[in-house]
Amino acid sequence: MAMPQRDDTIEAIKRLDALLEYAVMHGDEKEAERIRAELRKLTDEV
Questions:
Q1: CB neighbour list of residue 29: distance below 8 Å, 6 or more residues apart
Q2: Whole-angstrom distance, CA of residue 39 vs CA of residue 12
C-alpha cells in the first residue's frame, strides 16, 4: 500500500472510530452498526 493511501486509510479509520464512539455514547445503535460496517469494509481492504 502506498504511503499516501495508507495515511488516508488511517485518517478514515480514526474519523469513523470517533463517530462510532459518539453514536454509542448517545445510544444510536442503528448509526453505530452502520459505522461498524464501514470500519469492517475499510479494515478488510488492508
A1: 23
A2: 9
> Mind listing the pLDDT tens digit of every residue in the chain (46 residues)?
568 888 999 999 999 999 999 999 999 999 999 999 999 999 997 6
CB of 42 within 8 A of CB of 9? yes
The full 3-state SS of the chain, as one line of letters, equals CCHHHHHHHHHHHHHHHHHHHHHHHCCCHHHHHHHHHHHHHHHHHC
Q: Which amino acid is at 13?
A: I
Q: Which region, left, alpha or beta, applies to residue 5 given φ > 0 means left and ψ of -120 to 50 means alpha?
A: alpha
